[in-house]
Amino acid sequence: MSTTMEIHNKTSKQKIMIILALATPAMIENILQTVVGFVDTLFVAKLGLVEVTAVGISNTVLAVYIAIFMAIGVGASSLIARSIGADDYEKAKAIAKQSTWISITIGVIFGVISYFFAEPMLKLMGAEPQVLNAGVTYFRIVAVPAVFISLMFIFGSILRAAGDTKTPMKISIWINIIHIGLDYLLIFGLLGFAGFGIAGAAWATVLVRVIGTVALYRSIQKSNVSFSLFRKPVNRSYGFTYSIIKLSTPTAIERLIMRLGQVLYFGLIVKIGTETFAAHTIAGNIEMFAYMPGYGLAIAATTLVGQSIGANKQQDAYKYGMLTTGVGVITLSIGGIFLFFASPWMATWFTDDQIAVDMVVTALRIDAFAQPALAVGLIVAGALQGMGDTKSPMYSTAIGMWVIRIVGVYILGIQLDMGIAGIWLSIAIDLVVRAMFLLYRFKYHFKTGRSIEYAKGN
Q1: What is the count of structural domains for the chain?
Q2: I want to staple 97 with a disulfide (CB 3.0 to 4.6 A). Which of 105, 227, 301, 438 is the partner?
Q3: CB under 8 Å to 135, separation ≥6 — which residues?
Q4: Whole-angstrom distance, CA of residue 96 vs CA of residue 194
Q5: Which of 207, 239, 271 delimits the end of a domain?
């Protein structure tokens, strides 16, 4: 998928095959990471609830870091994909190099902040005294080398923007296998080795990120966007920082809006009741497996729309965006059907409490009908980001989270006393409105010719 001739002048059926070839490895990678995160949590849970809480609070702070790192990846992906679409590989390499240095800089800054302000940040997140010591230990080990988190995100984004989703998947498979092994060894020990408890979980995570960073960088050196971190380019200046930051900033704001909104609406759910919050959390964990393919398809949309826009193939860009969305609607609808019928069985994995099970089933059966809208929102947002419009997804998240979801939970869940049904109806309405808005924006760009402006880099 690395050259424009391979993705253009294709029939709709051939385009769908290209979409699936790009999306499937990314889907597998996302699902695998979800499973490994589940196993990691399971291991830490064996240490005790204090350790689970410490890791959970630490990861809440890290999620803010990751939002920034992902945003840089989105900006870089859009610019690299368009450069490759225009057959300007030297520009793509220069953007890849510059985005890497931006990621290194921000990763180091976050690492320094983590070292000096670990305790105040965890206190701000509500860590109680018995959780704080374990939390600070875990957080410092994982967050001080934040540069490796940022590098893994940017290197993966560079490869995917060039059309290579298989390499990040392959690397993810074997480093996650290593992660599970290191997790067990460093947490619990083996053959006379005592293990380090929660610190062991942190060190396992760091070691795997270092290995993943090296593996991804070596893969880039073998790709058509290879670059040297320290050698100066011959014919290119370092003039892409502004473009990368301009595209990344709305995405970063979008992720922060989402995180802050989640904190507020989680607080509203807690007000409804502890059992309701627990059921909501369980439903969210189960739902994740249904919509995970949407992220893989969103990556495919970003790459294919971006490369088509760069090649001034406007019709192809539109077609790839719509076809990928169609594939996503079918895929997530099947997941929705599975959620609807399998939810009573899946809920019992997490709890034996029949009231909680009933609430989880209610939530997932409402969510089942929202899966097509979720597919549209995820994939069209990826398509828009591929063509350089990172503002529309930001607007949709701001309106959806702060106006529809939070207000909806308050009115339906609390004021009308609809409980879990009110919460998930609010989420469904949010997803439908976002999908309609983003689809309108995507079609608007092509109807008005604004997609041509993006192709020129405006």
Answers
A1: 2
A2: 227
A3: 53, 54, 55, 57, 58, 122, 127
A4: 43
A5: 239
